[in-house]
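User: structure tokens for this one?
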Amino acid sequence: MSLGWYVNRLRAMSAGELAHRVGEKVRKNWARGRLEGWARYPGADIRPLPGLRERALKASADIRDEVGQAAELVLSGRLAALGVAWPQRAAIELFPAELWRLDPVTNGLWPGADQYCFDIAYRHERQLGDIKYVWELNRLQFLQPLAAHALLTSDAASLAAIETAVASWHAANPPFRGLGWNSGIELALRAISLLIVVSLVGDRLSSDCRSQIGSILHATAVWLTRYPSRFSSANNHLIAELAGEFLIGLAMPDLLFAAGMAARARSGLTEEAGRQILADGVPAEQSPTYGAFSAEFLLLCSVVARDAGQPFPDSTSERLDAFAEFIAWMSLADGTVPAVGDDDEGRVVTLGSFEAAYPGSVANAIGAHTGRGACGLAGDDFRSLLLGSAIQQSPARLGQRVFAAGGYSVVNEEIGGRAVNLLFDHAPLGYLSIAAHGHADALAITLAVDGKPVLVDPGTYLYHSGGVWRDWFRGTAAHNTLSVSGADQSIISGAFNWSHKASSRLEQHEPGERWRLVGSHDGYRKRFGVIHQRSLVRTDDGFTITDRLLGSDRGLPAQLTFQLAPDLRAHVEGQTALVQCDGAAIVSLAFDEGELSVQRGGELGGGWVSPQFGLKVEADRITWNGAVGEVGRQVAIRL
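Assistant:
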């Protein structure tokens, strides 16, 4: 498996990237032989990030309660993330040395300070578990609610826990040894957590604790500048790394390289805002949640820079605003959005709990910062507290909107007295040469009726330890589109790589009461000699979907999939699938002649939805099998 991964990864690299990777490998090998103890990275003075403490002190009673509850969970030795709970620890030993390398699923211990970080082959390890779980704890994000609680209540136990956690991590993870040092995004997130701690309660920490935090940040800054994500890896990881460099440079000006590092990072963040958020607001990685993750890094840096009297260029705010507007169009009333592409629940400012409406929360904070008002989830939360709360709620986005640069069409309207939210995906597979977080979902749709998800994206489930399930959840047959002969539109060549990528486009958009959308993709052209074309047309009681395989006179064996939300059930009557919730009719799907069935759960290929990273639940999946050619097949969706 490891050899195959390297072969496929090399195929995705340009000559320039190959040269970069060789040079990076030389630098990593050179660093292995150096003594990289803490003495090399003394902790300079750390200044609080401006504005965070002042805003935190304005917390409402509801937010104070949320902060207190999150802190209490940490103090009671309970930590949970990514759908998994860590073994509970006694209050007298909250942060033992083994905690930082413990996999909570397998209970296995990953290599620690005894091994050079880049010698740990985490991508292909399966016995110890999924590296994401270990990384999650090493982000130290549980310190954020502890710091906020200590600030708001002067809680001595929270302060003591912060000191204990920092000392334990510092002792167990010397520079560049163990899993805490082998991915730049993880270093950046940990640095931001520590900077939030210092900004909120730094004046209440011991000198030893502040010195340890300073050493961690010093070593982190050196690592981030030494091994930047570039070329095909320059996605959200690069934004995270630049954010870490900018904020460390701002908070630790006494470091000799701080000013230059912060200036370069600031310039890089401005450039990446323009690259990774397209002009119409769609995230280039084709995932609204990864887009929110990148936008939150950019927003935090923009907020801090403005509070420091050095605001980012207007172009950054314009891209953030555009992203917030995209989320506003995609969002339901509760701030949730369809689960397009990957979502590993990465957050920047967090209390550690699962956030179903994360993109809406980030969009709200953006609206507060730029002055446009909240446009996603109504109400304040911990994130908006630190980054600025919106004063007013802007109106819901109604009508039709085509995001041409990003590749999505949205219809938010009333049909037969029922509110309909329809998303049509004619977007690229993903960003850069490996399209790491895209799914093979070209021409897929999602549908919500009266604010309730009906036809849904299946989600993500797992990354490194997902195996065949990782491939299933990002494959074509799991999405609400058409697959030919069981093949994916784009060809998977690794957990975060594709060897061949389908190219999609919107061919036609006729707006108005009888709107019409036509899209196509070429993912099946080389293998089957056909272009998949899909048309959506408004009708009196809903809309129709017509799928054609252009280039096939007699038709090819094909499958149409419609994945339902887990709380819905479907049953077949002739050529019609009736969808119900608790016995009440929601929609019906009337198909042309063919084989119609419903699966729920079962083996790989059955009906499954992943509502959170690490979890999968059974859900009805409607499938139609038959021949499709140029004449096409039609599905009438009636409300």
